[in-house]
Amino acid sequence: MPDTHARFSPSSANRRIHCPPSLLLEEQFEEGESMYAAEGTAGHAMAEHRIREYLGQQSICPTSEFYTDELLEAVDEYVTFVTGEIEAARQTCSSPVLLVEQRVDASGYVDGCFGTADMVIITDKVAHIIDLKLGKGVEVHAEENPQLMIYGLGVLHMAEALYDIETVRMTIFQPRLSNASTWDVSPEYLKRWGEEVLRPAGAQALIGAGEFAAGTWCRFCRARNQCRARAEHFLELARLEFRQPALLTDAEMSEVIARADELSKWAADVYAYAQDQAIVHGKRWPGYKVVEGRSARRYTSEADVARAATAAGYTDIYKKSLLGITEMERLMGKEQFQTVLGKLVYKPQGKLTLVPNSDRREAVSFDTAQDDFGGRSFSSDERERIVNSPSVGADWPKDNLHPKIKTGYEKSSSQSGIVAGM
User: Fold this and answer.
1) How many Å is the maximal CA-CA distance in the chain?
2) Residue environment code for 314-342, b if the CB has 16+ CB neighbours within 10 A, otherwise e
3) Distance in angstroms (rounded) separating the CA atoms of residues 218 and 82
4) What's this model's pTM, rounded to 2 decimal places?
């Protein structure tokens, strides 16, 4: 995987388009790699290896401390999707172009703009770019996604000399959130976006021109903790004088919910920055001090503990645990695993959560509180227990549940008072 980075990189394009001067502002801060980014890099390396193996290309299996059953299962889902797309391409094209971790260049629109596409599949009429996202936090979608659109422009630049491309297909595959999003556009639409949106934003960003603007695109900005525009954006909410929550109108409550989530993230970012400055750099903040947190006891050496306990006559000192699903499937093979254990594996229902209508997941519908839960009426404490359980009915008597919880959007009854998105 390439380790060089562009000043105007596709991965930061959404931020640059909305807040052009953020590029020069960020360059004042050292670029570091978070634990989540390192895990993502490791996951991408394994995905690349497995796809190259599938294609019969030489590849060395990577190793990493981040390789857990859960991460490898997510990688496997992505590889299965990609190999399916490869075989589908082979059905329509005798010799499709298959590029793994391909560098793509869009410097024709923004000087020095390039990046790495996880998978590119080019047939006679279609150029398909597939991007793996291993994040667990926020769903990312392909439609009007600047990162993928830049990849698309770069792939078009490569492919149009040999192929008459009619469709640029862009897919984001996000296995940990069960999210797969695909968007098809014409080459003409993509090029027009490149000229009308990308080129002027890039020109401003490279010289630090334009206006600072805060929004969801700030999440990975290196200047986010000290950015004045972002602070002013969120402090607007803190300055509002609301009445007691019970007296807020529905519209006011929705406004608070919409802004409070981003406000809490901003506050957490500021706290993390302040704590790092205090612990790592000795910064003293007025009214705060650094203390030691609680810790748990640990063995100095497990081998020494085992020898000492055995010598004292204790033999039952080890625990045995069952292999995880991914490791068990790898041991048996997918077909044998399905035959032997398929009926013993399930995916639990996700915890109910309230989300904006813009979220693409379908809403959970409760016809009425009494109907959905076997005709029972519930107190507010009982309803809270149901909503906050890992899955509805997980810790509730089964004879009180009703199987009529269905997807789709309906407003909940006044008895329930709950509308939740999954």
Assistant:
1) 78
2) eeeeeeeeeeeebeebbeeeeeebeeeee
3) 31
4) 0.66
